[in-house]
Amino acid sequence: MASDLANLERPAQKKSVALSGVVAGSTAVSSVIPGGDHLRYRGYDVRDLATGCSFEEVAHLLIHGTLPSAEELATYQRKLRAQRNLPLAVRRALEALPAAAHPMDVLRTGISALGCVFPESPDQKAENARAIADRLIASAPSMLLYWYHFAGSGCSIEVETDDDTVAGHFLTLLHGREAHHHQVRALQASLVLYGEHEFNASTFTARSISATGSDFYSAITGAIGALRGTKHGGANQAAYEVIVRYRTADEAESDVRNRVANKQVVMGFGHPVYRVSDPRTEVLRTLANELADRSNDHKVMSIAERIEVVMADSKNMFANVDWYSAVLYDLLGIPASMFTPIFAMARIAGWSAHIIEQREDNKIIRPTASYVGPDSRTFVSLAERGMPSRWRAA
Amino acid sequence: MASDLANLERPAQKKSVALSGVVAGSTAVSSVIPGGDHLRYRGYDVRDLATGCSFEEVAHLLIHGTLPSAEELATYQRKLRAQRNLPLAVRRALEALPAAAHPMDVLRTGISALGCVFPESPDQKAENARAIADRLIASAPSMLLYWYHFAGSGCSIEVETDDDTVAGHFLTLLHGREAHHHQVRALQASLVLYGEHEFNASTFTARSISATGSDFYSAITGAIGALRGTKHGGANQAAYEVIVRYRTADEAESDVRNRVANKQVVMGFGHPVYRVSDPRTEVLRTLANELADRSNDHKVMSIAERIEVVMADSKNMFANVDWYSAVLYDLLGIPASMFTPIFAMARIAGWSAHIIEQREDNKIIRPTASYVGPDSRTFVSLAERGMPSRWRAA
Which residues of B touch A19 (CB under 8 A)? Predict the structure, then answer.
């Protein structure tokens, strides 16, 4: 089944990307063709998955290796539903965190604490790792929203719901009422599209951590940290902040043209891997449009679409996965600080698959550096270092 | 000042190491010559630093760029001393963690929680990053030992001490009394030797995380996760578990020869970068010997030295930094579960220097993968997936 896809169309080394095009390992989890506008999870086109599958089916595909049958899916959903609760220690840790914290920092801390409560067994069997992955998929929304309500109002919410899906569970906990089916479907599609993306920076971080023999929670905690950056998952919140700067599409057009002329970066456009377009954008644009129609609220959508046209026209740049995710989340009434945590909730599926795969590979990831520091220096003891060093020659 | 050191004697690609010999960036923090038995921090030989410096001098060198004058050192020590306390939120989070947790998981959680309490400013100025680094150096022992005593006895200890040094602070909190000068000196030297090591797996993880634009705490949290693995920092606890298997040096020799004959791995020997010897081992052996002499307890030392001889004789393998660190920590009365956290306390200095350097470089680290999964598969909707997937062809 091995494919030669990986050897086609590698991107040229980009100045802004270290190790660009360098093969750091092998994977069967997903394939990206940078020039060919293509992303597949275990061989399936991500657009088919986003329009035809629930997030649970895709999590099963990524973590357990196959698209589930109806029977398997029902079992899997029951399993996830049963693991939404949080142990008391994790609640206590979340309650300790300040209301001003960023939810990504909260999720990082909550999952790290969960790793103290239910540590992975040192034998690191793949079946146990998959069970931890499922627990994290099930309980990440609980962590985020338990903290969100506790920090906001001092309320300890009940984190178990009857929703069939992770997306439904998240929306019910956020809004305190069951979401409409079409809202769940939209959030679900974005979770599918955010679920996996080959050796992106957070996944590579998760693999680097698990490659030392470390535990599952350490790898996920590190990956959340990497995803938080604005050059990675943090970009969806940053993209939203671009859109909400404007009151109208005309105002957006004029300001964005100015910014482009002044060589300022506009978040939500371009990609470190894709060169022509992002295969995930169209599905999200369509879903965001549907939500805008249903709510009869086109303001944010019209601004986002205009900026997309301007960026294509003036910079030949395409909207990436973050652009319409931001619009979609706004239309679902999700606060901007939760945008990147939703990305994390979804990507746990991909990270988990990569952690398990990296362990089978059994290699530590240890590159080297080009040394650009001082040559050999003679050591000077403290007694001889008379003057403060700022007055000494380097 | 740039040097061509980095281009000498790169190790050949090793099967057990991914990206071995691949340059993933440049650094002025340290240089390693794999064949030449050499490790320098900002140009200074690590052996001179370990025998001639306090850990605080080396932390200043790594984080602030220079070996401090006596006046600067006094100021720096005062600064670190003033930051040993833990905010209430971090105490509460640590109190929530179970007594059975691994201290590495506790440290990961505590630092992640501290990042919620004192988040880094989004401007990520280097001077603020250095201030966070100093706070982490100062407070990591407090976190570890606050949790250790609270989990063990329910006691909320006072974490501020009058010790001048991080090593002294750690030992005072651990044992509840001030340590002898020679004990502080021994622990201090091991902190110096653990302080930095170029693009090792945890440092590379910290750099990968900070390269996305993420915050300082995320990078440190991820690095702690990577260090935890037994192929990395976790090896010092694993090395200790080798040594304490035996009652006598003769018993050790006979069993280790058997293990070598059966091709079993003996932890604490060899290194992914060094090929001839580890430049840090000799200083640690000497210090461990001195501690054994002073306490008139040579049992563990004699077993460790015999195994070193056997490994050299039977496998031509050298003891690495972890081997005599384990002996030294044992002689200081430190519980084995704290060995890797001590490594982390020290390496925070190196990680911090690399995080700041990576930010200056301003590149995201994003390698690629060789795809070995299934070729394009036709999507099958749930309704058409009749049978459980275990009965379908792959």
Answer: 19, 22, 24, 365-367
Provide the residue type at A116 as one letter: C
B391 C-beta neighbours (distance < 10 Å), count:
8
Q: Is B271 a catalytic residue?
A: yes
Half-sphere exposure of B345 (CA within 13 A, CB side): 30
The residue-averaged pLDDT of B86-111 equals 98
| Orientation of helix B216-227 relative to helix B339-361, angle to 10° | 140
Run of H or E including B292: helix B281-295
**pLDDT value of residue A170:** 98
- What phi and psi, each to the nearest 5 degrees, are found at residue A244? -80, 0
Q: What chain A residue is nearest to B362 in terms of C-alpha separation?
A: A16
CA atoms within 13 A on the CB side of A114: 26
Asked if B366 lies within 8 A of A40 by C-beta distance, the reply is no
3-state DSSP call for residue A162? coil
| ipTM of the complex, rounded to two decimals | 0.94
Q: Are the beta carbons of A389 and B68 separated by less than 8 Å?
A: yes
**Span B108-155, pLDDT tens digits:** 999 999 999 999 999 999 999 999 999 999 999 999 999 999 999 999
Give the distance from CA A97 to its chain's centroid. Answer: 22
Of the given ranges (A329-333, A390-394, B326-330, B373-377), which has the lowest mean pLDDT? A390-394
B232 annotated active-site: yes
Is-contact A188 A167, C-beta < 8 A?
yes
Residue B372: closest C-alpha in chain A:
A2
The DSSP secondary-structure symbol of A229 reads S
Burial class (CB in 10 A: 0-12, 13-18, 19+), A391: exposed
Mutate to test the interface with A, among B364, B375, B387 (most CBs of A within 10 A): B364
Amino acid at A377: R
pLDDT at residue A15 in the model: 63
Euclidean distance between CA atoms A51 and A53, whole angstroms: 6
Pairwise CA distance, residues A225 & A112, whole Å:
11
In the prediction, which pLDDT does B16 show?
84
- Which of A69, A73, A199 faces B369 most closely, judged by CB atoms? A199
| DSSP tag of A154 | S
Alpha carbon of residue B290 to chain centroid: 24
Three-state secondary structure of A304-327: HHHHHHHHHHHHCCCECHHHHHHH
- B222/A226 touch (CB, cutoff 8 Å), yes or no: yes
Sign of CA dihedral B194, A213, B148, A154: positive
How is residue B324 written in tokens?
């005599």
d(CA A359, CA B18): 12
Contact B370 A27 (CB under 8 A): yes
CA-based nearest residue in chain B for residue A368:
B23
pLDDT digits over B192-216, tens only? Answer: 999 999 999 999 999 999 999 999 9
* Chain A residues close to B73, C-beta within 8 Å: 382
Residues of chain A with pLDDT under 70: 1-15, 34-36, 387-394
Interface test with B, best of A105, A265, A340 (most B CBs within 10 A): A105
Asked if the Cβ–Cβ distance from A361 to B387 is below 8 Å, we say no
Q: How far apart are the first and last CA of chain A?
A: 58
Do residue B367 and residue A202 have CB atoms under 8 angstroms apart? no
Confidence of residue B287 (pLDDT cuts 50, 70, 90): very high
| HSE toward the beta carbon, residue B243, CA cutoff 13 A | 30
Is B2's pLDDT higher than 60? no
DSSP at B12: P
